[in-house]
Amino acid sequence: MENKAGRFKVLFVCTGNTCRSPMAAGLMKKLLLETDFDGIEVGSAGTGALNGWPAAPHALEVTKNWGIDISAHRSRALDREIVEQADLILCMAAEHDRAARQLSASSGRKSYLLASYPQKSEETPLARIEDPMGGDLEVYEKAFMKIDEHLRRIFGDLLERAREPEEGR
Description:
By secondary structure, this protein is an alpha/beta fold. The chain has a single domain (about 10-165), classed as Response regulator (Rossmann fold, 3-Layer(aba) Sandwich), CATH 3.40.50. Helices cover about 40% and strands about 10% of the residues.
């Protein structure tokens, strides 16, 4: 995530940073374009990612079908610096939340499961967004639809948080 002073930084985290988190970041960017609000910076990373890989072909196809272009995406490994730069970390599963917390003590107050945000709850089957890696296009569509459902549910809250003064975040 490029560090632009004053902007609220949202980080999406999954495992390989080639499926779920780039789809979530692409959708978030699209929603932001529709609101004309530029106070949020969006990024993604993976707990087991290798740097520089493109998004998975099915992730590219699903997002393209929704008018979202993630073709420029390149994977990044989650590290301490990325975690500490983020104002909000939205994880696809509990293991991603745990990894963020292990990298930085400060992440405990800002790391959530996307599907249960704003609650700090343990993962349940409903709070996990399953990894579509290795699945067919339908599996990717299912994952994208779950991401879409939860992002749209919390989008207003994210805008409110981003509009708060930087020291109040």
